[in-house]
Design a protein that fits this description.
By secondary structure, the chain is α+β, with helices and mostly antiparallel strands. Helices cover 20% and strands 22% of the residues. It has a 5-stranded antiparallel sheet with strand order 1-2-3-5-4, with helices on one face. A hairpin with a 2-residue loop joins strand 1 and strand 2. The longest helix is centred in the last third of the chain and has 13 residues. The relative contact order is 0.22.
Length: 100
């Protein structure tokens, strides 16, 4: 997916793993979420922030930057939330219509 690796749990897109040369400031683990969950997730992930190239902040997609000192522990916590089915993480992508 756009040179990244998307992780799904069933039909839910939960995380994207990104490590590219372009825009290194957004390399790391992207979290699919909604703005209404940012505050509660930021308590768990203080370094989490919006992905600026996706539009005006705050964006639904948030990133755990690979440059953050708490990157590994944050990613482990995010994965634990995904496994537990935490409703704050994940989105079901809109289906694409097939061309004729």
């Amino acid at each position: 997916m756009f040179g990244c690796h998307a992780l799904y749990l069933g039909k839910r897109l939960v995380l994207i793993l990104r490590h590219r040369d372009t825009h290194p400031e957004i390399n790391g683990v992207w979290i699919a979420t909604k703005r209404e969950y940012h505050e509660s997730l930021r308590k768990l992930f203080p370094s989490m922030h919006s992905i600026g190239i996706l539009g005006k902040s705050p964006t639904n997609w948030q990133v755990l930057s690979e440059a953050s000192p708490d990157f590994e522990s944050s990613v482990i916590t995010a994965c634990e939330l995904v496994v537990k089915g935490d409703k704050r993480i994940g989105t079901i992508p809109k289906s694409r219509k097939k061309g004729k």
